[in-house]
Amino acid sequence: MLKKRTYTLISILSVLVLIFIWELCTDILGFVGPNVMPSPLAVLQSLLYKMDHTSPDGATLIQHIGASLQVALSGYAAGAIIGIPLGIAMAWYRRVDLFVRPLFDLLRPMPPIAWIPIMIIFLGIGIASKAAIIFLSAFVPCVLNAYSGIRQTSQVHIWVAQTFGARNTRILFKVAIPSALPSIFTGLSVSLSCAWSALVAAELLASSRGLGYMIQINRMFGRPDLIITGMLTIGIFGAVLSWCLNRLQKLLVKGGRY
Amino acid sequence: MGLKRINKEALLSGGASILAFLLLWQWASSFTQVGQLIPGPVTTLVNFVRSFIVPIGRHTIVYHVGVSLLRVLAGYVLASILGICVGLVMGWFRVLEAIMKPLIEVLRPIPAIAWIPISIVWLGLGEKSKLFIMFLSAFMVIVMNTYDGARRVDPVLVGAARMLGANDFQVFKTIVFPASVPQIFTGLQNALSVAWMTVLAAEMVRSSEGVGWIIVMGMDTGDTAQILVGMVCISIMGFVLAALMRQIERKLCAWNIRGV
Questions:
Q1: CA A143, CA A245: separation in Å to the nearest integer?
Q2: Hey, which residues does B59 pair with through a beta bridge?
Q3: CA pair distance A48, A60, nearest whole angstrom
Q4: Residue B255 pLDDT level (bands cut at 50, 70, 90)
Q5: Residue B81 C-alpha, separation from nearest chain A C-alpha, in angstroms
Q6: What are the pLDDT digits (tens) for A146-186?
Q7: CA A5 → CA A2, A10, A65, B98, distances in Å?
Q8: What is the ipTM of this complex?
Q9: Whether A238 and B109 lie within 8 Å, measured CB to CB
Q10: How far apart are CA A232 and CA A65, in angstroms?
Q11: pTM, whole model, 2 decimals?
Q12: pLDDT value at position B4?
């Protein structure tokens, strides 16, 4: 058994070796030309350049990030605010379940991306249609996880609450929802990654600003360095957002291993 | 008796809500301005049935679905084979974990869809770039789930095997692999639905056939009837694929049936 520090060292080394091989193949040995695969140094240069230059795609990296975050967060927030209560209501009240579940199951197998053309026809190519797509992609996991979380409430806990004379709504708020929180947060984090990839898809297809637009338009300009810059930014922001959600979960969810 | 009554009630209320939805849609499309944008459910159904005979673009709907399914399948099979191997190895051998985990963690937050433009630069507009995208989308999901499964193997089982004198490889083969099968299946299931979504995106960005092409072509020509036919088709296939995976899971790991 090696020490923990050794493993960390191996991990760091492995990333460094990868970057070195990348550099070796591009700049030093020239296996692939810069118009196919730019070197890591070139990507870094483009990243710094793009921070405050609008060429060639009409906006700085910061503006692209701002546009994407605005769309993604508004759709995501709407999906969570509508989806979680709906999932809870479906799981707790049988009437709601009976009537909403079939409709929900009917629409669920449709990937949110398939809604893009219809949304564009209804809402135009502005922020509304993209936010609607992201809403749909965040909505479904939120509903599903809130539903299964409430359904998994321990029957014993409900009995205890009933024995102490709690009413149905009180049991819901004091017992079922707190015990379903870890599952609800799982839903939120699944939705987040769904929303983030739906955002990229929506922006690839129709937009004039945003990270997805940036990688698509730079393909047409033949600037792979900017495509990779855009991809890395998408990855970094996806990771940052899910990290924030994780912190929030640690703050809000008490008890349990989560 | 009680069960029967509940089923009947569920059927009735479910039917009622779906009927209400369809009626609302029909009403909106025939009596309001929505009708100028999209056709109603009856027209959509007629169009859907007709698309089996009358080609959309150059091919009938069956061909389009077949093309999309083949794209998904090719990437998916490759990704499952490689993904399960990499995930298991990563979950069990610490040194390999230390080498591969950071690489995968760096790539994981980038959605497969974001790889579409660069894959077109690298591999061209044809099938190769689509295969790459499909592979990537399924691979990440499968690796992460398999890895998780292999990591969460009950240490008591491993300890027992070690006590009985099993070496590293034997423990891996007889305990770690079978114990992570349920997790692997979760991964395979999720990967299939992710792949089905990604193939749409890939086809919508650039292709000349497939279900994604149907809806994006409908958008470009302003033919909403065609978009709806495509969406119905995508939805049915998504449902069929998910149901298929559930059946396979029920057959292959009957000891572990998950809900949902």
A1: 17
A2: B56
A3: 10
A4: low
A5: 23
A6: 999 998 888 899 999 999 988 888 999 988 998 899 899 98
A7: 8, 9, 36, 11
A8: 0.85
A9: yes
A10: 12
A11: 0.86
A12: 59
